[in-house]
Amino acid sequence: MHQTRNKKSSDHSAKPPMSSLLLFVLLLAAKAGTADSVPARPGCQALCGGVEIPYPFGIGTICSRKGFEIDCINNGSAGEIPVLPTPDQNIRVLHLSVSPFPEARVVLPVAWQCFNSTGDVTGSYAGDVDFNREGVYRISNTQNELFVLGCNTYAYNNGVRVYDSRFSYKYYTGCITVTNDKTDPRDDACAGLGCCRVDIPPGITDTSMTISGWSHANQEFCPCDYAFIVEKGNYTFKASDLISNNQTMPLHVDWTMPLRLDWAIRDNGSTTAVSCAQAPNKTDHEYACLSNHSECINSTNGPGYFCNCTQGYEGNPYVVGGCTNINECQYPQRYPCPSGSKCIDTNGGYKCKCNLFRRGEECRPIIPMTVVALLGTFVAIFFLVLLLWFIYMDGKRRVKRACFDKNGGEVLKEAAGIAIFTQEQLNKITNNYDTPIGKGAFGSVFLGEINEKERVAVKRSHFENKKGGQLQQGGEFVNEITFQFQNRHPNLVRLVGCCLETNIPVLVYEYISNGNLYNLLHGQRDKVLLLRTRLNIAIGSSEALAYMHSHADRDRIHGDVKTANILLNDNLMPKVSDFGSSRLLSTAKYATAVAADMSYIDPMYMMTHRFVPKSDVYSFGIVLLELITRKTVRYGKDRSLPVDFVKSSKEKGNARELYDGNILSHDGDQCHYCGECLDKIGALAVQCLMYDVDDRPTMAEVVDELKQAANLVDNCKQRAIVSQHTVAHV
Ligand SMILES: *[C@@H]1O[C@H](CO)[C@@H](O)[C@H](O)[C@H]1NC(C)=O
Ligand SMILES: *[C@@H]1O[C@H](CO)[C@@H](O)[C@H](O)[C@H]1NC(C)=O
Ligand SMILES: *[C@@H]1O[C@H](CO)[C@@H](O)[C@H](O)[C@H]1NC(C)=O
């Protein structure tokens, strides 16, 4: 066997390499296509000479079902080949298949009969081969046809012996062919001239032929007749197969033809074979269809049955577990799914699962595509808005941070004791700025409460949210805040903290409970105000101003001294507010902000547009006038308090007619009247209101003068007490 293989391979090497390669590829392809799906019995040889031997076929009786035995023989130069075992002759097997149709391709000898020149038969062969002793095969009537070649002959095949009938056999099938002229037969033309052919009926069990003994006298050109059944399309007539030239005699004694056999399970013999209906029940070991997922099918060519895997399964139904599930999803061509779906393999079938938002047999979209598109757009817009919102919030945060930095947040943080608030904290402290308590040059003032304990006044600039709300440069601001924080005076409103996250910082001051001097003087006219009380207020606030003016290193000017900016606590102790506003706002803005109350403004400022400490002195002069007259700056019918007072003082030496009558005629006071004191204060006020800055006293001098006036009042009291005593003594 080894030797023959070697020989075969050397044969191959003699051929052109291209064709051997092609053969190799074809062999591989043939193997890959079927080898796995058609198993032999376990432990049995599955291949012989490149031909698969699926059960019920097998080599040897143990490996095969009865009647399906195959021999694997060594055929010399051809190597191993599978053959049907027959007593006299080997019938070569080309192919065996179990599904989808039970079929065997074999090679069978051609029947012949030859004549001499006088027309006598010199030899013949009927073509009968005993390959079908168990009767499992039938010659396929659909795949084969019968050919007769001859010049004056007929041939037929007959089969199925019948008794008590007009004829001995159930069928006879063949054809006649006659030709007198050796030029008549033509290649490719099998139509009576030298060649005839005919379809065959089902049920044929062998290829033995009966060939006529009609005379071939004077037909030397046509020495032999042939008859055979062959696979359709495999044989085409050639005149040279029949007609003899002098050179070559067409004597095809060993001529063979390939043909297809149907096979079936016919255990009880050819005539008494069982059908599916009669087949033993499935547990019987005789029953051939052993695999799960297999079915029994009645043979259409002869009696008996065969097996097939049920739909969705493939393989060999004749062995246990032979039918296996087909993974249909691997062959989308053969097992299609509609677009928009996914193929899912199941046992014995497959499903097409529609993709998301698709339904029905054809997996059409549930929602029209336009709606899907619309929905998608909405979602996209939603996320875009979300994104923009984030960007916006981030922007705000950045602005806050930028303001914080610009306003010197980092520097202020390090200055111990200054509370730095965030905007959120301030919103909470002021309950979203719901209680306004006033307006200053710097902005609106709101009441707030820190930790439900300490009440505060929160000052927010008018310009905060407006474009152009320009602040003094950051460094300036830090200096001012720090200065205010470090320089405390009992008569100055104390700075508690600030918020730096806005363009113009928000300032948080201590809350002064009892309103301002303006309201006390002009809003509550019934309230008795002793002269000494008024003087205390004047002294306290002038001291605060003098204290600030005393910082010689820089100009510390209030810039907006007026009764409304002098706050009072429960003991009527004055607290000057709004200090430093002029520094926190740019000069132009500040001028606009205080313009509403021009009455207090130093006329010098109007010319120079510069505040000097003496500007505060001028404004304080007006405060003094209000204190002693209890009149507003503009009073009566368009009267001006400073103008009237100064005029009156110049003309009469004093302006007593303008003094508050309440002071003059109050009888609760032990000192009923201290005209001297009032005149002194009036004179001081007039001094403060001098047009020429140099003629005005400094704030410190104002404090001194007021203290002297206070002494006068106190002395006056004492004198009054003394005089009362004196009266008593008298
Ligand atoms: C087939 O033959 C077996 C024995 O050869 C016999 O036992 C069986 O009954 C037969 N079946 C039929 C349906 O004839
Ligand atoms: C065997 O089954 C396959 C698949 O179910 C089918 O295509 C084929 O026609 C069947 N064979 C016969 C002979 O019915
Ligand atoms: C065949 O099917 C039966 C019942 O459905 C089951 O019990 C048995 O295990 C299956 N055999 C194989 C080889 O799958």
Number of strands: 35
The chain-level mean pLDDT equals 81
Count up the domains.
4
| Cofactors, ions and other ligands in the entry | 2-acetamido-2-deoxy-beta-D-glucopyranose
Explained architecture:
The chain has 730 residues and is α+β, with helices and mostly antiparallel strands. It has 4 domains: 47-88 and 270-326, no CATH class; 103-263, no CATH class; 402-510, Phosphorylase Kinase, domain 1, CATH 3.30.200; 517-720, Transferase(Phosphotransferase), domain 1 (Orthogonal Bundle). Helix content is 30%, strand content 23%. It contains 16 helices and 35 strands. The chain has a 7-stranded mixed sheet, with no helix packed on it. Strands 26-30-31-29-28-27 form a 6-stranded mixed sheet. α8 (531-549) packs antiparallel against α12 and α15 (675-688) packs antiparallel against α16 (699-729). The longest helix has 38 residues, at 369-406. The chain is rod-shaped. It starts with a helix and ends with a helix. The structure holds 2-acetamido-2-deoxy-beta-D-glucopyranose (NAG) (3 copies). One 2-acetamido-2-deoxy-beta-D-glucopyranose (NAG) binds at residues 99-101, 297, 308-309, 311.
Describe the secondary structure blueprint for this structure.
Elements: H1 2-14, H2 17-34, E1 47-48, E2 51-52, E3 58-59, E4 69-74, E5 80-84, E6 91-97, E7 103-109, E8 111-115, E9 121-125, E10 137-139, E11 144-149, E12 152-161, E13 169-178, E14 195-199, E15 209-211, E16 224-231, E17 256-263, E18 294-298, E19 305-309, E20 313-315, E21 323-325, E22 341-346, E23 349-354, E24 358-359, E25 364-365, H3 369-406, H4 409-414, E26 419-421, H5 423-429, E27 436-439, E28 443-450, E29 454-461, H6 474-486, E30 495-499, E31 506-510, H7 517-523, H8 531-549, E32 566-568, E33 574-576, H9 581-584, H10 587-594, H11 603-608, H12 613-629, E34 634-635, E35 639-640, H13 641-652, H14 661-664, H15 675-688, H16 699-729
Parallel strand pairs: 3-4, 26-30
Antiparallel strand pairs: 1-2, 4-5, 5-6, 6-7, 7-17, 8-9, 8-16, 10-17, 11-14, 11-16, 12-13, 12-15, 18-19, 20-21, 22-23, 24-25, 27-28, 28-29, 29-31, 30-31, 32-33, 34-35
Bound molecules: 2-acetamido-2-deoxy-beta-D-glucopyranose (3 copies).
